[in-house]
């Protein structure tokens, strides 16, 4: 469980910001969103395959030399 201890003279808003960052690092929010509704196995495979294709496109785009601007 993620906990944030308030430091002396620390505003609550700053502590909340630290808490949100800590939760993002653990990956809790995406997992909760994924578990809110059932996803069919075929839909899950389709989503993962699309994400893999996007990662591959991004990797190929980064490996190419930059386009000439003239």
Automatic annotation (TrEMBL):
Family the UniProt entry places it in: Belongs to the bacterial ribosomal protein bS21 family.
Region named Disordered: 39-70
A GO MF term: structural constituent of ribosome
Keywords from the UniProt entry: Ribonucleoprotein, Ribosomal protein
Domain of life: Bacteria
Record-given protein name: Small ribosomal subunit protein bS21
Entry-linked InterPro entries: Ribosomal_bS21 (IPR001911), Ribosomal_bS21_sf (IPR038380)
Organism, as annotated: Paraburkholderia tuberum
């Amino acid at each position: 469980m993620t906990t944030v201890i308030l430091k002396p003279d620390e505003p609550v808003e700053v502590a909340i910001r630290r808490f949100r960052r800590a939760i993002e690092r653990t990956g809790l929010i995406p997992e909760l969103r994924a578990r809110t509704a059932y996803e069919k196995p075929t839909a899950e495979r389709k989503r993962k395959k699309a994400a893999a294709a996007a990662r591959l496109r991004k990797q190929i785009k980064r490996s190419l030399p930059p386009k000439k601007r003239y």
